[in-house]
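User:
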Amino acid sequence: DQRIQAVAYRAIKQAVADHRATSGSVVILDVKTGAVLAMVNAPSYNPTNRSDWQSYKMRNRVITDSLEPGSTIKPFVVLAALE
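Assistant: Predicted structure:
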């Protein structure tokens, strides 16, 4: 969905700037079907502007980078244990 993709990109671009992060990624899924509605990375590149093409901007971090879920999953583990 082009609209969801655009909203997600603006949100991650702003979050990266606000937190002075080197990069950020967003994946939005349809909870009923599991379909990917949006997948964005920041920084990114403009495919029509070849002078801006830099390899670190062209990498799809959602797919290529590994990330340990760490503390983000702990509340769910505790909740499951309590039930």
